[in-house]
Specification:
mainly alpha; two-stranded antiparallel ribbon; 14 strands; 38% helix; 8% strand
């Protein structure tokens, strides 16, 4: 038993010894590892000391190696500090041991260490764009090129890219597309690394980042042959390029010279003419000309722009088509082609050159020349005109004002002289006499110009005659005190002549050519299905109507003649369409769809005879017009 106790004690001692040896082994291995780290760091120091150069870059590499030693554990702090001091000694040219310099050397080394540390922090926290120190925590590092920039400078640079417009003179135009080279690192002109997308998203607002993304997408699409961009600076929309087809209709299309387009122009049009779906701009995708130059290739159109053109039709002037100058003509009509229409316009055009250097677009014979119509001319801006030479005439809507001699009316509006004359000569459009043709199409004022006075004079006299007749008819029917004339809220307040002209209809007699009363305007509006198809021979005044010796009063004329209703034995109260008299009951039947005008004479009421007829006079059968005599004279007789 005693032996067994001793054996047991021996076993315990052996176990203790094993545990101690195991612990010593761990410590030994740890020391070996630390020694290896120190050895590698020392070798770095040795390599630095063996170098002929003591540059700051070698010191920086040694400092980075020392930082790696720090990561090995807490036991390496002492070695790290010693290595950093050795690095300082190396960079300053002092190769003595860290502990052999004395107290003065340690002070110098500490100062140098502090200087290097400050330089390191200064480099890490300085913005490369503005040069200001922001602190390492306040700058963004571009990992690809190791450049640093503060968020404020980076945002200002990106916003500056967004402020560049397609049209620099128009701040409302679209943002200029951004290419890949536009987003390279701004810290150095030689740096070709891209600014990271996350960095742009961080410094920009949501709207700014979306605008930047749109501009980047536009830049990508613009450099692709599969997409095109609208040249309108305010639109700049991008859409897919899909060429048109050369169909049968395109082969017969007429060019600006009035001839069928040649094959090369048709093919050029199909490949390059596009219409923007956003702003409807029509343009050439090859040269961005708007509108598209129909009938020209891009090269031909460039030549056309710098050539002389006919001042009327804009054809390119060549020695073959240039018209000869008339004798004693001024230079204002020098550049005209030999087309018949252009030669006719030349005869009517003013041949003078204005002080600004542009030809006068007015009419020959005017006392004062028309101001310059060229839009970008200073003289045009000073004249404060309502239109320029590129605006279409508001009467014909076929040619611009610069394509024909133009007049400026008294109201200030501009029209082709020939268009104004044509508008006046066409007179009223239907059977009833109206005077809208004497008004300016834009402001409704009476047309007035010295060269038009002879044309306007007969129609102005006719206007005064019709107006006088309408006012007398208004008094005869007892409507001179109508509420529409006396009410302040009415558009006819204190304007009996305007009310009479709108209420009564007058027609030109086909026989005597004089205006005659044709009933109320309301009847005329509801009567004729197509007023343009009227027969002028149906318009006959009362004095020219055959079959009655009472069709004109010697005292009061023909305007107050009473007529029998054409459809029954009653006095007519309505005279419609300028040739038909109705009584009240027959007029209502006509308005309600029981068209007496479509009935046969056998279907009309029969007269009961002279003794029983309400009119008390002998008259033709119903279905014919018949004059009963002057209404004013009959009223005086009854009185």
């Amino acid at each position: 038993r005693k032996v067994s106790d001793e054996q047991q004690q021996q076993r315990k001692n052996k176990k203790k010894k094993k545990r101690k040896d195991k612990g010593r082994g761990r410590a030994r291995n740890k020391r070996h590892k630390n020694a290896a780290s120190v050895s590698s760091s020392a070798s770095a120091v040795s390599a630095a000391s063996s170098s002929s150069s003591s540059s700051l870059s070698a010191a920086q590499r040694a400092a980075d190696k020392a930082a790696a030693v720090v990561a090995a554990g807490k036991d390496q702090h002492r070695q790290k500090n010693q290595l950093k001091k050795d690095v300082i000694d190396l960079s300053s040219g002092d190769y003595t041991s860290a502990g052999a310099g004395g107290s003065g050397g340690r002070v110098e080394r500490e100062k140098e260490e502090e200087r290097l540390f400050k330089e390191y922090l200064q480099r890490e926290g300085t913005c490369a764009l503005c040069g200001d120190y922001k602190g390492p925590e306040n700058v963004l590092i571009m990992q690809s090129c190791d450049h640093r920039a503060c968020p404020e400078c980076l945002k200002a640079w990106l916003v500056g890219l967004l402020s560049r417009r397609v049209d620099p003179s128009d701040p409302e135009s679209a943002v200029r597309p951004l290419l890949a080279t536009d987003l390279q690192c701004p810290c150095s002109a030689a740096c070709e690394h891209m600014v990271p997308d996350w960095m742009m998203n961080r410094v920009l607002t949501k709207d700014e980042y979306e605008a930047l993304s749109t501009a980047r997408l536009s830049g990508f699409l613009e450099n692709s042959d599969a997409f095109i961009r609208c040249p309108n600076a305010k639109c700049a929309a991008v859409f897919e390029r899909v060429a048109g087809s050369v169909n049968r209709q395109a082969r017969s299309e007429i060019g600006p010279d009035g001839k069928v387009l040649a094959k090369k122009y048709i093919e050029h049009r199909a490949a390059n003419r596009f219409r923007c779906q956003t702003c409807a701009t029509v343009f050439c995708a090859a040269c961005n000309t708007e509108p598209y130059h129909l009938g020209f290739t891009c090269e031909e159109f460039e030549e056309y722009k710098h050539a002389k053109h006919c001042r009327f039709c804009e054809k390119q002037i060549t020695p073959k088509n240039k018209a000869r100058m008339p004798a004693n003509a001024a230079r204002g009509i020098e550049w005209v082609c030999n087309d018949k229409e252009c030669l006719a316009k030349r005869k009517l055009s003013c041949d003078k050159i204005l002080p600004c250097g542009h030809p006068c677009c007015g009419v020959r014979g005017e006392n004062n020349c028309l101001p310059c119509l060229v839009a970008d001319c200073d003289a045009h801006a000073a004249a404060n005109l309502s239109a320029d030479d590129s605006d279409f005439c508001n009467i014909c809507w076929v040619e611009p004002l610069g394509a024909a001699p133009t007049v400026r009316l008294k109201c200030g509006h501009l029209f082709h002289f020939a268009c104004v004359k044509s508008k006046i000569n066409k007179k009223w459009p239907g059977a009833r006499i109206t005077f809208g043709f004497l008004n300016c199409p834009l402001c409704k004022e009476m047309i007035d110009h010295p060269l038009l006075k002879s044309i306007l004079r007969p129609y102005q006299r006719l206007l005064q005659v019709v107006k006088g007749k309408a006012v007398r008819r208004l008094e005869f029917e007892g409507l001179s005190k109508d509420p529409k004339i006396t009410s302040k809220t009415s558009k006819y307040y204190n304007q009996p002549a305007a009310y009479a002209m709108d209420r009564f209809a007058y027609y030109p007699c086909h026989k005597c050519r004089l205006p005659y009363f044709g009933g109320r305007r309301a009847c005329e509006d509801a009567a004729r299905d197509d007023d343009a198809k009227y027969n002028p021979s149906d318009l006959v005044c009362g004095s020219c109507v055959a079959g009655s010796d009472k069709s004109k009063c010697k005292v009061h004329g023909k305007d107050y003649i009473d007529w029998k209703c054409k459809w029954c034995c009653s006095v007519a109260t309505f005279f419609c369409w300028g040739n038909t008299h109705f009584c009240d009951s027959c007029h209502k039947r006509q308005e309600q769809g029981d068209y007496l005008t479509r009935k046969k004479r056998s279907e009309l009421p029969k007269c009961p005879g002279v003794g029983k007829c309400p009119l008390g006079v002998k008259h033709p059968p119903n279905g014919e017009e018949f004059a009963l005599g002057c209404a004013i004279c009959r009223q005086r007789q009854n009185f």
